[in-house]
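Progress narrative, Year 2. Work on Ribonuclease D from Trebonia kvetii advanced from sequence curation to structure prediction during this period.
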Amino acid sequence: MTEPAGGLPPVIATAEDLAAAVARLAAGSGPVAVDAERASGYRYGQKAYLVQLRRAGAGTVLIDPIACPDLSGLGAALADVEAVLHAASQDLPCLAEIGYQPHELFDTELAGRLLGYPRVALGTMLEEVLGFRLAKEHSAADWSVRPIPAEMLKYAALDVEVLVELRDALATQLDEQEKTEWARQEFAAVAAAPPAPPRADPWRRTSGIHKVRTRRALAVVRELWQTRDEIARDADLSPRRILSDQAIIDAARAEAGKPAPTGRPQLDRISGFHARNARKYSERWTAAVTRVRQLTEAELPEVAGVATAPGPPPAHRWAERDPAAAARLAAAREAIGAIAAERRLPVENLLPPDALRRLAWEPPVPATQETVSAVLRGYGARRWQAELTSLPLAEAFAASAASSAPTA
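Result:
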């Protein structure tokens, strides 16, 4: 697939053209294929820079959401129309920001996972299911450029060209494997999912932070990360285009053994601070590290971080903390693995891993099919997941308890 079947449509960039396109889509028939292109790696945040839709009877529509930032009219016109997306959870947040929130959806990636496909990228699924090969050379392009080059627009249009056909083929396979109801519940959960809450201490996700071993060095990571984030937000650039994670880690390690308030930070010895964008803000980097040198011990971050929500410790520590819980988790994982293999789907799609860990750490007493099912639903498992796994998990817990019970 190299050219859209109906030719490349113009990009909609005016309110008048948007209204006409919305009317055309509303008059179409069947589900609507939807995709969005972001500029991850180039711009700050995850907003949409192009929205693509295709519906039978309406053809393909390309919308510039920077020129037309309000798609609430589209959402209203297609309120009762099933939206077909690939990896919907990636695109729904940026679509919601501009007013389009489908109430009913079909996620072709998630359907592929439920069907047991080992690789579920869109190009792979189209080739394996429909026999179409899709060029993906623009998947990491800068979609914030204006005007968007024609070759990139062709790529974007092709992403929705046969998405409904893929949906129909996967729906047939779901029916054949008796997984249609599973998919319906999964799709409904994705559509109804609330916005993700802000991460606690997002600076702790800096690549390479495991090499930073002291509290003051961690404070350097925190200050440089937060400074970089402020600069990136103001400049509308990806933070890593301002300063690399590696430069932050190198600065933290260089400062690890320095005395607190004296001395000038030697950031000029670190190559990452010589990059073009980083050089512009040398004074701010120096100020950030100087602030860390002036912090008291009480103001430094903890090495392990602070728990922000109740829950079990990391699984690798269970054996020393609670051997019985570790045994329960091992038995539970074995039971879940057997069901997943039998049903031909990934373990993580059979049951959320966090729900399984929480259940194994603190199971209900008594652990019966009914009580295990109730706990799983409370942890976010869908009804079909609880129905499949609650009895095997209750039996696994009972077997684990019996094997670890002291003998007379």
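The chain is about 50% helix and 10% strand. The CA atoms of residues 4 and 141 lie 19 Å apart.
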